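Hi D.,

Good news: the full-assembly prediction came through. Inputs first.
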Amino acid sequence: MARYGMLINTKKCVGCYACRIACQMKNHLEPTEAFIRYEERETGEYPSVYSEIIPLQCQHCEDAPCAAVCPTHATYITDSGVVLVDENKCIGCKYCMAACPYGARIVREETGVVEKCRFCWEDGKPGDPPACVGTCISGARVFGDLDDPASEVSKAIAEYNAQPIAGDLTKSKIFYVR
Amino acid sequence: MIWGPMIAWYLFLAGASAGAFLTAAFVEAKYPDSNKMRIAGRIIAPVFVGIGLLMLMLDAEAGLMNPLRFFYLISNPGSVMTLGVYFICIYMPVALVVALLEILKKKVPKWLTWIGIVFAFAVAAYTGFLLGVVKTFPLWNNAILPILFVVSALSAGLAATSLVGLVTDREKFEHMWLVKKSHVILSAVELVILFTMLVIVHTGSSAGAATVDSLIAGQYALPFWAGIILLGLVAPFLIEGYPVFITKRVETSTTSLVLSVIGESGVLIGGFLLRLLVVLAALPLVFV
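Then the structure:
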């Protein structure tokens, strides 16, 4: 069984926000709703100062705090490690939003259901590739099977020594190059 | 900010309901002839938690639009929210039956009162644990918050019941030294617990420090100092504490009645504001 994950290379990211737009289109979100958000900050010390843009979305954690607190089991983890929301079970209590350390969840205006990035999951499998990966103009995003050492994403993670955004906090499966 | 005033109302009403149930049980045991206080507590209990649950459902929009989904709430015992649902599933019917028996002037069996007592404590405590297990927010994620919520719940339930006792049966109420003493002590204890929590949250993390700063000297300073500290804790402590511990005499004057009403109402307002500010002011840890 595959174990899906992603690499995001912030050094390649130019901050064009195309991934967010592609995600909104793919998932039929309102213009005010987004599964991807950005943390922007300055790093380094004068005179070597950089502007860093960190795209954030559901990190598809193995120790997913959202799934742990969800009282209705609407949030669940597939065998392939993708964290999903069953919109027919969600009551919109927002407990998962409070528990998520990455602020990755939103309430859908139309339904009141809490949703988030699902790696463009459809018909029992993730997008090939997910919309954000397919649209990225600079190749900053790589998607694939983390358990397959020959996969593009595994090789990229090894090459760049990419790390989860918050260490081993939640065993997340999006790896960042910063 | 994820939750708002609706959730604060629920946390307050569920706590106050539990406190009122416990007050009624206490009054029944210690002052068997004080009917009005006991009846008041037993009726307030189901009414408050009922209104609170309504607030919860209004806030959970996806469930409100598809009410059958609320049945899924029992499916994850690992979630504190599901545990709370279990507690309420027992507490709510018990509180209702107790109120009904009281209204029908029938005797409430002791065992039923005891089940109610256990689950009233469970309900009051779970409202604190609900927030307490959320690691993202330092103001919530500490061991003191559930204790603070329990003490505040007892205090609010006592105040709501006392308010009715004060207006309908003042003669008897003024002689209930144990009730009055407990009330004063609860206010003092709550003040100490609140202080302890804020010190520890402030020291623990920068998000915690920013949260506490917003409460004591930032955008929430006015409701915090005027509402929670002065009106909700210090004023009731002084108003009730003076006759109980200093003059030690039964008050009969109208001035003292008015003061007592202010004190009890203050506890209720402070109790609600405590929940509201805990919900609103909490800032998340930033992991990025």
